[in-house]
Design a protein that fits this description.
With about 140 residues, this protein is mostly beta strands. It has a domain of about 90 residues. It is about 5% helix and about 45% strand. About 10% of the residues are buried. About 5% of the residues have low confidence.
Length: about 140
């Protein structure tokens, strides 16, 4: 089963037992995390697309380690001006292991039927009386 899930503002394609490097997550190494922003589920025969997310679907993962990415060199230069700046950056990442892809486990059929049968109260339209315009006073000079 494949899924597309949003983690830390980015979208990842995941499946069971896959490893990912994502932006640094809160939590200790070895702890479990759950992601509820599942955008798409694909179980081979059926594809479920969320609007914007699939209700009841979640991804369970385990934090393996916190690491830093390779260094990226940022070099700025303006020719004939004597301006050069060199900076480096290492992004903080978390390596996670996808343990389980849950498909609609939280939503029950009874809950869906109860939501559909809820009566909707309509507000009665009340008209406000129109304010009377006062007559303009004419002044003579």
């Amino acid at each position: 089963m494949n899924a597309i899930v949003e983690i830390s503002g980015k979208q990842f394609k995941v499946e069971k037992d896959s490893k990912l490097f994502v932006h640094r997550l809160e939590g200790k190494e070895g702890s479990k995390v759950t992601f509820d922003n599942v955008l798409l589920l694909d179980n081979g025969s059926k594809v479920t697309i969320g609007t914007p997310t699939v209700k009841g679907a979640s991804i369970q993962a385990k934090i393996l380690q916190h690491v830093k990415d390779n260094k990226v060199i940022v070099f700025k230069k303006k020719r004939r001006k004597g301006y050069q700046v060199k900076n480096g950056h290492r992004q903080a990442l978390t390596e996670i292991l996808i343990e389980k892809v849950n498909e609609k486990s939280a939503v029950k059929k009874a809950d869906v039927k109860a939501e559909a049968k809820k009566p909707v109260a309509k507000k009665a339209a009340t008209k406000k009386p129109a304010a009377k315009k006062s007559a303009a006073k004419s002044t003579k000079k």
